[in-house]
Write a structure and sequence with these properties.
Layout lengths: L1 H7 L4 E7 L3 E6 L5 H10 L4 E10 L4 E9 L6 E9 L6 E3 L9 H11 L2 E3 L25 H5 L2 H23 L5 E6 L10 E7 L2 E8 L7 H5 L7 H5 L8 H15 L5 H28 L5 H21 L8 E2 L2 E2 L6 H27 L2 H7 L7 H7 L3 H5 L7 H4 L20 H31 L20 E9 L2 E9 L8 E5 L2 H6 L1 H4 L7 H8 L4 H5 L1
Parallel strand pairs: 2-5, 6-7
Antiparallel strand pairs: 1-2, 3-4, 4-5, 8-9, 9-10, 11-12, 13-14, 14-15
Helix pairs in contact: 9-10, 9-16, 10-11, 11-16
């Protein structure tokens, strides 16, 4: 990291300092230096923008913009800050999207919710939020949520009016002659969830795609800021219920860092077991859903059958199958009063998977129709992964060796044996097959963590009835932390800011992978036909929960 600090120190900085093993934290004195700094860092292999996170320090009259920049190949990362005046007419900075295209949607989100204008952005527009929030910047600290929500009917009318205006505009522009038209794919399509793709077609051929997200935008980050640090997990886990435990691990780590608390070894391994169980439950939906996009529903039923066993594991621990609230700052929420019985349930789920695994591989993964449709279709190169910051199974299907569990180990992963699981071709078939391979890896990690816990209990080094939680302070000091984890669909990054004697988060930014994966649809779908949309969309493992938040 010395080379990165050397590059940063060539510019006028307030500070440049180490932050964790693979991060450097720095703050620019002058916003005019942003573009030269970004170009210099890119030359050093830091080519991806994970997210852009403004913080509104209303009492100080400034917006602090945080850029989280990652070197996916060299494993070197930079947390770069710069202050902007809070006044809307002065709250602007140069866009880094022309240099790092992965910043595109993140800059749009920062503009829409905080009012930060990004000069030179290729298409600066309101994004994610609905029309009733346009120009109101709802994540600023002086936004009046109560007053806004009292105008419910006016808000609904504004949203409806926008769609009528858009329809009239398309009618005037395209008319009814010729083969070109604009189709709305979603938001009720069974393979998409609440997203609309505006698909510009010439006959069956796709010429252009514009994703329109935000149909279930819940202002989740702002909602989290209204809760205490324990209560916030109820909001955080709703990023997506398909892999419920891992977002809570990410959030809890940020709180623990600011509090200066270390969780017990027992809790670390329990987070592995719960996290990998959530990953498997999610992957089974992804794998079965992929076949569903081709109209083959039988495999989805197979996957749902196996998934029930892993949901049983979560239910036996937390009392809930989906919204488990099983992890909180300080460790894991519940003790294991009868660990042998619970581990017997874990073994039962593993045995179910291992029993059906050969048939799944033979009957479905070698399915000739799937191979014909998916092989060689929708290819991403390793360069695409860096350019657009793809992560998780989507990146590893293209042969890129990135995995937060290895690159920046957390929970108990540093003590477990694991390697990168990859495919080579980066096509839709590999984005299916990687899921199968990762389920097998998750099973192995559960077995390893389970053995660690059992050995610790037998040696008298772990008490499953007491070691699940360490006591957390009711109030946190002023601080700031960044936490990353490997979620089922890719990297989650949480940026947490607290004020002195805080009982609630001051700023909670949640970055999840579906934002960038949805952005890729603009590049992935043109040139294909309409029948390819469900297949290619399904291969991206997009979850609307983490997309809309």
């Amino acid at each position: 990291m010395d080379r990165i600090k050397e590059v940063l120190n060539k510019f006028d900085m307030e500070y440049v300092e180490d932050y964790k093993n693979s991060w450097v934290k720095a703050k620019l004195k002058n916003k005019e230096d942003l573009i030269p700094v970004i170009k210099a860092l890119k030359e050093e292999g830091i080519k991806s923008c994970a997210t852009v996170s403004p913080t509104d320090f209303i009492d100080e009259g400034r917006i602090e913009v945080n850029y989280f920049l990652e070197g996916l190949i060299n494993k070197k990362n930079v947390w770069l800050k710069v202050d902007l005046p809070r006044e809307l007419e002065k709250c602007e900075i140069d866009s880094i999207t022309p240099i790092m295209p992965s910043a595109n949607y993140h800059e749009l989100e920062a503009y829409s919710t905080f009012g930060v204008k990004f000069k030179g952005h290729p298409n600066l527009r309101f994004f994610l939020i609905s029309r009733d929030y346009y120009g109101k910047f709802p994540f600023r600290k002086d936004f009046d949520w109560k007053a806004h929500e009292e105008k419910l009917i006016d808000n609904i009318n504004a949203i409806t009016e926008e769609y009528f205006e858009e329809y009239d505009e398309y009618e005037k522009a395209n008319g009814h002659e010729g083969s070109r038209t604009i189709l709305n794919w979603g938001p009720t399509h069974p393979a998409s969830g609440p997203i609309r793709l505006k698909v510009y077609t010439n006959g069956e051929n796709i010429e252009k795609v514009e994703p329109d997200i935000g149909y279930v935008w819940r202002a989740l980050e702002s909602l989290s800021e209204r809760k205490d640090f324990i209560g916030a997990i109820v909001a955080v886990e709703r990023i997506c219920f398909m892999d419920n435990p891992n977002p809570m691990i990410c959030y809890s780590q940020a709180v623990e860092e600011i509090a200066g608390k270390e969780i017990t070894p027992f809790a670390k391994y329990m987070r592995v077991v719960l996290g990998e169980t959530g990953r498997i439950a999610s992957h089974l939906i992804s794998m079965g859903g992929f076949f569903g996009t081709m109209g083959l529903q039988t495999f989805l039923m197979w996957c749902l059958d196996v998934r029930e066993y892993f949901l049983d594991v979560l239910e036996d621990y937390s009392g809930a199958r989906i919204a488990t609230a099983c992890i909180e700052p300080g460790g894991v929420r519940f003790p294991l009063n009868d660990y042998k019985t619970w581990f017997a349930g874990v073994d039962k789920a593993i045995e179910k998977w291992e029993k059906v695994k050969p048939d799944i591989e033979e009957v479905f993964l070698k399915n000739p129709l799937m191979t014909v449709r998916a092989k060689g279709t929708g290819v991403f190169s390793a360069e695409d992964v860096e350019k657009y910051f793809l992560s998780g199974p989507v990146a590893r299907a293209s042969g890129v060796k990135i995995d937060v569990r290895i690159d920046e180990p957390y929970a108990g992963y540093a003590d477990l044996e694991m390697d990168y699981v990859t495919c080579e071709n980066g096509d839709a078939r590999d984005r299916l097959y990687i899921i199968f391979k990762e389920i097998n890896q998750a099973i192995d990690l559960i077995k390893q963590a389970k053995r660690k816990i059992e050995a610790g209990i037998e040696a008298g080094e772990m008490d499953p009835k007491k070691d699940h939680l360490v006591k957390m302070p009711k109030k946190l000091p002023a601080g700031e932390a960044v936490s990353r984890i490997e979620w089922a669909r890719g990297e989650i990054l949480i940026h947490l800011v607290t004020m002195d004697k805080a009982t609630t988060p001051y700023r909670l930014k949640i970055k999840a992978p579906s934002v960038n994966h949805t952005m890729m649809l603009e590049h992935l779908l043109p040139g294909h036909t309409l029948s390819d949309i469900p297949l290619l969309y399904g291969s991206m493992h997009i979850c609307q929960g983490d997309l809309d938040r």
